[in-house]
Structure formats: structure tokens, C-alpha cells
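Schema walk-through. Below, the input block comes first and the output block second. Nothing else is stored per chain. Lengths vary across the set, and this one has 336 residues.
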Amino acid sequence: MKILVTGAAGFIGYHLCKRLLSDGHVVVGLDNINDYYDPRLKFDRLKELGITEENASLWNKLCTSTTHKNFSFIRQDLQDRVALPELFKVNSFDQVCNLAAQAGVRYSIENPEVYIDTNVVGFLNVLECCRDHKVTKLVYASSSSVYGNSTEVPFKEEQSVDEPISMYAATKKSNELMAHTYSHLFNIETVGLRFFTVYGPWGRPDMAMFLFTDAILKGKPIKVFNEGNLSRDFTFITDIIEGVMAVISGTSTSKNAIYNIGNSKPVKLLDFVTALETELGVTALKKMMPMQDGDVHRTWADVSSLQNDFGYQPSVSVKEGIAAFVRWYKYYYVKS
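--- output ---
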């Protein structure tokens, strides 16, 4: 198939592009390479896909990979109502996987406008392009944050998600509603994936895995929020990609579907830190902090729907995942 992957320079997008290409698909990657976190990491991910920084820096110019004949990349904003429709017009995509979004729960409290521009206006533009250019299937990233501080665990797709506690979560809930509307009105198959705390090599530097590793190796204290009384459904990137690939290749039971995609084994934050200390061979200096605005106490995915419909089966333990991340971190950041 010919597939558009938005957010291709991002953590999940980069890994998905690699997997799609290895399976023989033709992939067009799109990203605006913003500076929410160090763009160097984004350019280096693209470099791994054969896109030079010089070419990736050019706006609205499709460039071809030097290492993957089926991959091309364009730097573009999702909310561009001229350029994005033109990209759809000239490429005739079979599917779209929308992973582009302004990420980060805490950042959304200080900068809500950016989240509306990218996550709502941008997503609407993607839906309109799918409608106008006869794309029959859209897979898109939602988030476990839509569950807010629900005490019903594990989280199931059918439970209420009407009480988001961050602007980021509100935009992801909006995406699900918008996708439902377009699926109903225009017969587009839409599949929303509620990601649960994804981590692994090439991961985002604003996530706990990265922040903890970086601080511990530099002898700096790590911030442990809510006195460590948090738990997360940490999910390794290869398990996530297996699930996304199954959804892209298969057919859901509903024209408009939403699935949890996680490890389904929540880990207490302090246990996660202990496992990381063991892998690094260093004891962390811990700075106990209060709960942060917008944060949730725990996440825990019920993934039975994704298992039943697509055979999803996460297999990477937290110990294995942490080891893989630390190897990459040392390769990428400590090699020099």
C-alpha cells in the first residue's frame, strides 16, 4: 500500500515508518519538526531513514530517501489548508496513519493554543483530505490520557471519558469524536489507538524513561512526583508497532473503532526507578515532589478488544525494555 505517516520524525512515527518499509509498503512521511523538544533528535531519526537534514529542513518539498527507495519525506504543517490537500492530490494514498500531534500533558496547561492548532485544526484538515481524496482508512493516535483520573481499572474502551484533566487529553477526546462523525457521514474507516506510556530507543526526551536515565547517569536528582504513588502501563515501542501494523493490515469489527494499546501490566513508579537503577548500576538521588497539575494517578489498559480483533499480544517486559533503552541512550548520547 501507499501510506501517509504524519509525525514521521517523532518517536512512534519513526519506528512505524521503518517497519512499514521493511514490509514493502510505499511510505510518505510528514512532520513539521517543531522545537517542543530538541529537533536534533528528530533530524537524526530521519537520517536513519535516509533523509538528510538539508532536505528535511525544506518546507513543503517532497524529498526522497537515499537508503529506502520506497520512502519520501515532506516538512509540512498539518493545519496548512493549501499544501496538505495538494499532497493528498498528487499521491493517492491508500491509508493514512496520523501520529502527528502536539504532545505533552504539562505543556498543554501553559500553551493550549498550540494544542488546538495542531491536534484539532490539523486533525480536521487530515479528515477533510481523506474525505476529498477518497482515502478509505484512517488510523490515528489517541491517548490513555482521555481516561483522566478514572478509578475504574483496568481502563476499558466503553467506559466514560468525559472528564479529561488536561488540554492535551481534551484534544485527543475531540479527535475521537471528529473521527466518529467523518466515519458516519463519509464512510471512512477510522481506528483510534489509545497509547499507554510508550518508551524505548529513540524515545522522547520529555518522558520519564529519558529524564530518569539522563539524570541518574549525570549524578543529578530525579523528580519523583506524588511521592512516587503513581503507576503507569509502560509499553515498549516494538509492542506498540506490532499493534499498529496489525490494525493497518487488518479490518476492525466497526467502521469507527477505538482500541487501547498498552502492556496491560501497570508498574509502580518507584519499582520502575529501581529496575532502572539495577540496569545502570547506579542508585538514583530521588527528589520527592507533589502531584503535578494535569497528571493522572495511574494508567492500566484493558487490551482484550485489540487482542480479540487483531491478535495483539505485548511481549516485552519492563526489564527487557529498560535494558534496550539504556543501550540506545549510551550509544546515542555517551558515545562521544
